[in-house]
Amino acid sequence: MSDKKVRFGIVGLGNMGSEHVHSIMGMNEATVGAVCDVDLSKTEKYTARYGMKAFSNHREMIKSGLIDAVLVSTPHYDHVPIGIDALAGGLHVLVEKPIAVSVKAARQIIEVSKKFPNQKFGIMFNQRTNPMYQKMRELIADGELGTVRRVTWLITDWFRTWSYYASGGWRATWAGEGGGVLINQCPHNLDLIQWVTGMIPNRITAVGFVGKTHPIEVEDEMSAILEYPNGAIGHFVTSTGEAPGTNRFEICGDRGKIVAEHGKITFTRTRENVQEVNQKSPKSFASIETWTIDIPYPKAEGGEHKRLTENFIKSILHGTPMLGPGVEGIHGLEIGNAMMMSGLTRKPVELPVDGDTYDAFLSDMAKQYGGKKTLTTKKADVDMSASFAKA
Amino acid sequence: MSDKKVRFGIVGLGNMGSEHVHSIMGMNEATVGAVCDVDLSKTEKYTARYGMKAFSNHREMIKSGLIDAVLVSTPHYDHVPIGIDALAGGLHVLVEKPIAVSVKAARQIIEVSKKFPNQKFGIMFNQRTNPMYQKMRELIADGELGTVRRVTWLITDWFRTWSYYASGGWRATWAGEGGGVLINQCPHNLDLIQWVTGMIPNRITAVGFVGKTHPIEVEDEMSAILEYPNGAIGHFVTSTGEAPGTNRFEICGDRGKIVAEHGKITFTRTRENVQEVNQKSPKSFASIETWTIDIPYPKAEGGEHKRLTENFIKSILHGTPMLGPGVEGIHGLEIGNAMMMSGLTRKPVELPVDGDTYDAFLSDMAKQYGGKKTLTTKKADVDMSASFAKA
Q1: pLDDT tens-digit profile of A18-50?
Q2: What is the model's pTM?
Q3: Which residue in the set A235, A256, A348 is minimally distant from B244, CB to CB?
């Protein structure tokens, strides 16, 4: 650390990487020591403005001595190899979501990270800094809902145009991204559905569609039913073809339900335990007294990416617990892999997902659908601030 | 008709049949000419109060000359044989929902009804008289939503206690009811999801559970994904084990979405056609101007059963079009049969459902689960007015 500042090397200067450079350059406890992109021309505007060194090869940057941590914001398939190189090179690593495209690759980087317990390994689960999701998690962890019986997330407000998919040749291809809405738009939702509830499903039954409303070769709509080991049921519905779309996250337990929609948490609390009434009431049509409560939660300062990155920096400098430990990146990915495989093969998939089976499935998809994206690549108007789902 | 009053014979004096006797006795254009129950003691309080004749055999009642129409409110399996006897006996027929337990039986009575075009054949789809659903149907029929792309109904507010299931030995058994939440609680929802949208799915993938929160032998929870011939997707989630439960009916099209919840219809209308923006916008993250509109609809007078019955009477006396033609009873039943078979076999089911296949499935279920209802039958507190789902 120079002057107690964490010096980041940022790999991949696409839309997100670019945001990260500017954001970190404005922080007190961090700076950008180097930038890296296979297309060196993309580094020029940063080196010209800030004066850091540029690399076209991430291994050179790792060896340079100029940085303490690597932020990986490359296309998805490069997250794992670059992350592993950086860990092996003695650096802290913060990877953009998803941790990997497939569970097998995710398990590899997690295993490697365990060999370097003194280096921080984090994942950009910036939505874990959202006070609304933190509050929902707290309610469940504190037992306010009792045992969770149903988790339903309708998250169809990921509208993306044909222009979006045309804006990068790698976008919405099996070879370039390893999937569509599940791997690009939904990693946060897939993480939150397990982080908020503390539950991971053990079987997923899904119905998915490749290129339903866009001429692409990956899935742009997915509907999934999740079964949990404790008997709870879950639902996850997403699409990039719907507008205005819905974002409603509903969790029911033995003491009522919480619904998060339009940035508001509504708790319909039952005065009695639902399953006790179910079993013991002498009435056929028992109605349980319920209280409808608006749950308050604090507003957060700054953007979610900034907050997550600052938390990662504090974990390095001050030992603050990480909000997004890299090892937890596997959970949402595994749920997404199971949805993808079930939705496109139309067979239920058990969790944990077998790594080799999923990689073989990915190869099959690439063979079956590769080249079916018929959009001509062209530069589109990109405003990343419009890309994050509103809670 | 005596004095232009339709004289009903009511078969089956359980909870619903009892309501119907009192309701019809209060109508101007109808009366109850006879009541019938295999347990003749159940008829006494009506014959004592109103003086009509009682029968223990429906065939005797049909031949009696005392009635013009039969209202069938027996357990489900008897709807078809009694309905067919009444049609063959020259009478009008109004059957309680469901029209039948299986599509094969439903097709039989529908075929028979076509041989008697001068007799009315109706089904108690009383929720079709609900102005909220009528308004939703109107919005879609008028094209306000454009092409429908997604239909999602979370209808989990069918909470039923163990006492409810203990209140009749036939309840929640394969032999007595032919299913659980889908065949008893949901027939209206299964009808409305097709009547409101005008769309019938061609494939259903479901996950269902027998006796999840009640010691019964039939399904008490079901989650289904519906695929439609036009490419639209649907979701239907129900349970009798949840409280307070959710009743949210959401329909999305190319011109926005309507959400019906808490008795309110909210239309989020897009100013542009979503799929045109999708295809033509130069922006990657296009945001479409939307208007949030509270859709007004009239309040209805009287109860839904009364309104549907009065409509049936008017169809006999004045030729008024029937709101619930019996021949339309097959649609929701078929959707329910497909959900049931898919949810319990865990395989996608194509529609139309093959009648023999479904009947064989029903036999399998009875063999596999018959006798697993472990509740001792006892009289419970019954308040039917609490049993109808609030919109």
Answers
A1: 999 999 999 999 999 999 999 999 999 999 999
A2: 0.96
A3: A256
